[in-house]
Automatic annotation (TrEMBL):
Protein name, UniProt field: RNA-binding protein YlxR (DUF448 family)
Cited InterPro entries: YlxR (IPR037465), YlxR-like_sf (IPR035931), YlxR_dom (IPR007393)
Organism: Streptococcus loxodontisalivarius
Residue ranges annotated for the YlxR domain, each copy included: 10-83
One matching Pfam family: YlxR
Amino acid sequence: MATKRKIPLRKSVVSGEVIDKRDLLRIVRNKEGQVFIDPTGKQNGRGAYIKLDNEEAQMAKKKQVFNRSFSMEVPEAFYDELIAYVDHKVKRRELGLE
């Protein structure tokens, strides 16, 4: 009898949905206070997840969700970088490259 593998689930900080970890993007704040995108999902630091969706990235900027998640002021430029990264990833998925 084959054992069923457990699917890792994480909660999106924007929508509050619990989703498969592979469909989410991890954002990390390390000990030095740097906030960055973690495409591997394995960097050290405090992580927060958002769904790989253009609307979700726009809402993250509008609501400034990472300011609350990381208890610090996240620069506006990071949110712009996040929106561009998510847009790029969504287009790659649509083309079947990922």
